[in-house]
Design a protein that fits this description.
heterodimer, A: 169 residues, alpha/beta, globular, B: 429 residues, alpha+beta, Cytochrome-c3 Hydrogenase, chain B, three-stranded antiparallel β-sheet
């Protein structure tokens, strides 16, 4: 898929809904469906972050939503611009899979296949137990993340020509 | 420096969580422990009491890299119990399904996990800056494999379309046509990957493995065949547990498998190729010759070449299967339940995967036994590390550690799979 059928913005919720707060990314993606403006696609991704490199091919702006290990307080949202800088080590959630978000972004950068703008919304989780639901603080953070992303999306111009001048997400 | 301890707390570029400890005493390796600390998930116990029709959804969850292997061993074992012989087009579709997994799993391991070892990079990200073409080829191959899996399995990870007796839905020829077009290009990329890997510097190493793999009368093995070995073993899958046993070791949450008669053995691409090279088409054998891959390869570092050759073969095989495909009149055979025991062994990308199910007459699972390839290779991996380390003790710790880690990655261990089979023992005093 390439060219005019590609969205201007792709929002990807990364995580496993069966592992407690790791499901925050998919939860945000599901809440966003039906609320995003034209030209914006929403996607859920499980364990295989490497697939992101194909997902964002030809897409100028990407917003990723993922869980991170507890740092300060559960449910706190960190917005990071990965366009020019790698994901800080403190935000890398240990994964049993070889390629997580941090590695995939850096691989995309090495290959020259990173979108023009990559913004990450990272939500601090409290627990990642098998089969557990979202913890209360993270469930609240889902709503906050959705509001912030919708607001950010409304600031992005709807034409590819104007895209270069946009103030992004 | 007669006494040394090399400890790798977290082995990178393998699937799952494991560590390695190497103790050197008086100038010789004293102990090697590949510790798998991934939490066990008790799948065998979890299957007990569930219906036969739930097997495929449950076992697909064991692994995100090789769920098709679990579904293929599971479906064939249950069908073996119920006396089902599927129609030829279904059999062909399952082989095509497996091709998708071999392509994506091997492509990931060859380029993203294993190649950086040979070229002196810490990871594929650093390697991509100078070997971008190779990484792009791997990503493209992985995508082609995933497309096949998605078409036949309904989705890429933990597929949902296989059922006992066949598939829920079979594809049309029109749906397979674009996949075939893409696979033609993928075949060229697979050949380029093989030739690229053939140029790597390979450490000198010869290991005296007993190879164990499936062998089929006509085909390079995937879903069917007898279990054979380079030392003369030749048994049906139903006899697996009379020849092989699993034992628990204190330092690992995964069981170690050994042959009752001769101990450790190797499964996986090297074993498959050594025992089945004559089942490969002439053009694939010619490619092996061209890149200098010997008919029986005993250097584990060169396993990367066998994987690369198998990717070319599976692209070819997938194209052959798609060209010959005629949609079946029925997508599945309805099972007739009976109390029975079923066994199956199939070739996962990492080697033979054995399943057994004991069903009651209503189709409820009374007992399940699953033996993944990495559990079978754990003892060999430890022996490899011991031998290689003994021969390389003059290296500084950092270099010795790197060599040990590389030797583990030679076998593409899937730690998550291996860790799902702990038998819990409670000692009370």
């Amino acid at each position: 898929m390439s060219g005019s059928d590609r969205p201007l913005v792709l929002v990807v919720g990364i995580g496993n809904s069966d592992r407690g707060d790791d499901g925050v990314g998919p939860a945000v993606a599901r809440r966003l469906r039906g609320w995003v403006p034209p030209g914006v696609s929403v996607l859920e991704r499980g364990g295989d972050a490497l697939a992101l490199i194909e997902d964002w091919e030809g897409v100028p702006s990407v917003i990723v939503v993922d869980a991170v290990a507890p740092i300060t307080e559960p449910g706190r949202i960190h917005r990071l611009d990965l366009t020019r800088n790698p994901l800080p080590v403190a935000f890398a959630l240990p994964s049993t899979h070889a390629f997580g978000l941090a590695e995939t972004v850096e691989l995309g950068r090495s290959l020259g296949r990173l979108p023009k703008f990559v913004i990450a919304y990272l939500v601090e989780g409290a627990q990642f137990e098998t089969g557990a639901p979202l913890s209360p603080a993270v469930a609240v953070a889902v709503e906050e993340a959705v509001e912030r992303i919708i607001l950010a999306l409304s600031a992005i111009p709807r034409t590819p020509q104007a895209e270069g001048t946009a103030r992004h997400a | 420096m007669a006494n040394r301890t090399i400890r790798v707390d977290y082995i990178a570029r393998v699937e799952g969580e494991s560590s390695l400890e190497l103790h050197v005493r008086n100038g010789a390796v004293d102990a090697v422990r590949l510790s798998i600390f991934e939490p066990p998930r008790f799948f065998e116990a979890l299957l007990r009491g569930r219906g036969y029709e739930e097997v495929l959804d449950i076992v697909a969850r064991i692994c995100g890299i090789c769920p098709i292997a679990y579904q293929m061993s599971g479906v064939h074992a249950v069908e073996n119990a119920l006396g089902i012989k599927v129609d030829p087009p279904i059999r062909a579709l399952r082989r095509l399904f497996y091709c998708g997994e071999w392509i994506q799993s091997h492509a990931l391991h060859i380029v993203m996990l294993h190649a950086p070892d040979f070229l002196g990079y810490p990871d594929a990200i650093a390697m991509a800056r100078e070997h971008g073409d190779a990484v792009e080829r791997a990503l493209a191959l992985k995508k082609r494999g995933n497309e096949l899996i998605r078409l036949l399995g309904g989705r890429e990870i933990h597929p949902i379309n296989v059922r006992i007796g066949g598939f829920y839905r079979v594809p049309s020829r029109a749906e397979l046509a674009p996949v075939a077009e893409a696979l033609k290009h993928a075949r060229d990329q697979a050949i380029d990957t093989l030739r690229w890997a053939a140029g790597f510097p390979f450490p000198e190493c010869v290991r005296d493995y007993e190879f164990v793999a499936l062998r089929h009368p006509d085909e390079y093995p995937m879903n069917e065949g007898r279990i054979v070995s380079s030392a003369g073993l030749d048994i049906a899958a139903a006899d697996y547990e009379t020849e092989f046993i699993e034992r628990q070791v204190p330092h690992s949450t995964a069981l170690h498998s050994v042959m009752k008669q001769r101990g450790t053995y190797l499964v996986g691409p090297m074993a498959r190729y050594a025992l089945n090279r004559d089942r490969l088409p002439a053009e694939i054998r010619a490619l092996a010759d061209e890149v200098g891959l010997e008919p029986v390869c005993r250097n584990p570092f060169r396993s990367i070449l066998v994987r690369a050759l198998e990717v070319v073969y599976t692209c070819d095989e997938a194209l052959r299967l798609i060209a010959a495909y005629e949609p079946p009149a029925r997508s599945f055979i309805p099972p007739e339940l009976r109390a029975a025991v079923g066994h199956a062994c199939t070739e996962a990308p990492r080697g033979i995967l054995y399943h057994r199910y004991n069903l009651d007459r209503g189709g409820t699972i009374l007992e399940a036994r699953l033996v993944p390839p990495t559990a079978q290779n754990q003892s060999v991996i430890e022996e490899d590390v011991r031998d290689l380390a003994n021969a390389a003790l003059d290296l500084e710790d950092e270099a010795l550690q790197a060599r040990c880690e590389q030797s583990i990655r030679n076998h593409d261990p899937c730690i998550s799979c291996a860790a799902h089979f702990l038998k819990l023992q409670v000692h009370r005093e």
